[in-house]
Amino acid sequence: MRIGSYRFGGTYRPAVFTDEEVLVYRATFPEFLRAAHSGRLEELDHRRFPLREERIGPPVPRPPKIVCFGLNYREHVEELRELGMEVPERPVMTMKAPTAVIGHLDTVLIPDGVGRVDHELELAVVIGTRCRRVSPEEARDVVLGFTIINDVTARDVEREEGQWVRAKSYDTFAPLGPWIETELEPEGLSMRLEVNGEVRQRATTDDMVMDPYELVSYTSRVMTLEPGDVIATGTPPGVGPLQPEDRVELTIEGIGTLTHYVDRR
Question: Which pLDDT score is estimated for 215?
Fold first, then answer.
């Protein structure tokens, strides 16, 4: 099942997507996510509309938290080895502001005064129920599904500060979508990012150092997870700069393609 949000003017409503239709629900996002996770969507009132791609919104318009992991693909660590990077002994965690989220066909805006801005294709986990201190096996029961995130990063800011939160949290720096796929296992998924038709990143999720369920477990031992929380699981090799007028397409097998544009603020 593909779930997310649908735009009505300046607002987003919870939605379920088919190939030709969208079911739009009269519920808050927390209510909708809990019902989707527990299999009770039929209890919620909804209306059907023809699907218009330009009205697809971020699958979670305002996540409670966005947790990001770095250095979680072996080949990505290998390409950074000349900078002294090694596979970490434990996951490298940072955060991204929830206000950075934009959706399918939206535009990343590079702020004035910010230099190099890079794309980072990532598989993202969406949490379906409140949890704390779960094991990797138990994590399977708290995950609602998977989506795509571009963990856009201001590379110069990241290098200058040595920590990553500001570099990743500018408004529009979290394209997310196009929807959450709830019936997907994350093993062996092919991933590809293209900029203006040129392939920049290509990998499979089998190259991860820690799999998504291990990362959910690890995160839950640091902080309580809530419905709608997003966990970005790291990027494969090939990260590179974005420029105004770029068209970026991020594809993950079993989910689909998230498309966004780039401009300068």
Answer: 97
Q: How far apart are CA 225 and CA 131, in angstroms?
A: 5
DSSP per-residue letters across 165-190: HHHH-STT-EEEEEEEESS---TT-E
3.90.78.10, 3.90.850.10, 3.10.350.10, 3.40.109.10: CATH of 66-264: 3.90.850.10
CA-based nearest residue to 250, from 208, 190, 163, 171:
190
Percent above pLDDT 90 for the chain: 88
| pLDDT of amino acid 71 | 82
DSSP 158: H
**CA–CA dist 225, 216 (Å, integer):** 9
State the pLDDT at residue 83.
47
- pLDDT value, residue 78: 65
Number of H helices, E strands in the chain: 6, 20
Q: Which residue ranges make up each domain of the chain?
A: 2-56, 66-264
DSSP reduced 3-state for 216: helix
Placement of tokens 């309580």 in the chain: 224
Please list the ranges in the chain whose pLDDT falls under 50: 83
Backbone angles phi, psi at 53, to 5 degrees: -55, -40
Query: Hey, which bits of 97-252 come out as E strands?
Result: 101-102, 107-110, 117-119, 121-127, 143-150, 153-154, 174-181, 190-195, 198-204, 230-232, 240-241, 247-252
Q: Is 110 helix (H, G, I), strand (E, B) or coil?
A: strand
**In angstroms, rounded to a whole number, what is the distance separating the alpha carbons of residues 233 and 187?**
13
Residue 70: per-residue pLDDT: 86
Question: Nearest Cα to 129, choosing from 4, 25, 31?
Answer: 31
